[in-house]
Amino acid sequence: MRILLTNDDGFDSEGLSILEDILCSYGHSVSVIAPSTQKSGASNCITLTPGVEITNFSKNHYHVSGTPADCILYGYRSGLFTLNNIDLVVSGINEGPNVSTDIIYSGTLGAARQAAILGFNAMAISCSPKNMDYKNGEFAYKDASIFLAEHIDEFYGFCSSNSLVNINVPNDSNGEWLPSSISFVDYHDEIVFINNDLESLMNNIGTSISVSLTVSQSQRPSVDKNHSKQITDFEVIENNKIAVSIIDVLPSVSSRHEDLIILSGGINE
What we know:
Elements: E1 2-6, H1 14-25, E2 29-35, E3 54-58, E4 61-64, H2 68-77, E5 88-95, H3 102-105, H4 107-117, E6 122-127, H5 141-156, E7 163-169, E8 177-179, E9 183-186, E10 189-195, H6 198-203, E11 210-215, E12 222-226, H7 233-238, E13 242-248, H8 257-264
Parallel strand pairs: 1-2, 1-5, 2-4, 5-6, 6-7, 8-13
Antiparallel strand pairs: 3-4, 7-13, 9-12, 10-11
Helix pairs in contact: 1-5, 2-4
């Protein structure tokens, strides 16, 4: 299979390198187009002006001075990669899980989504650190790469311009995988005040403060509510299994759409 790899952690990330090596060892032809620098949280953001710079750093390997979605968009529009020379776009392996609301913010998912929008078959794959310790925890990049390589033909049939496959591999996976719905997870985010404080901002016109968002180290993420009655992606990886989800490329219309039609006095054609 002719596979194009991308990610949001940068072209020189460990997860991307290991994934390429494993896929090549399974006989796949691999090309790479990834961001020049770390672009986590970029979602589906694209650069309109002044454009991006694409650098060839080795044969069929490029890095882009833009977002993960830029990599796919500009790689496609420039003619570097087309629907005729790429069978599958894989985004990852991401350093950290992409479950729950992560799929909205994730640059990893953003790149896969952009690929599907352009007509490519696309998958995203992510890893959780051991004990959810992002500073010292190990990431099972090799195990995740092997899992994808061994199941890529099975999952390929679920990819289309309307849907993509999202895979999440915990560090201590037992090797089993489950089809998973999407959860709502409370990550217990905290704001760090770098200079001044909230009271100063509220009470002094012209005052500014610097803040950053961090995940609480004192509390593990927890399921706040479930999107469905099915087992969710977060719950699956919490139980040391691999979560595999089929995600719609475009948001679906709410179940309350019928109520809106009634309110408008219209007819649902």
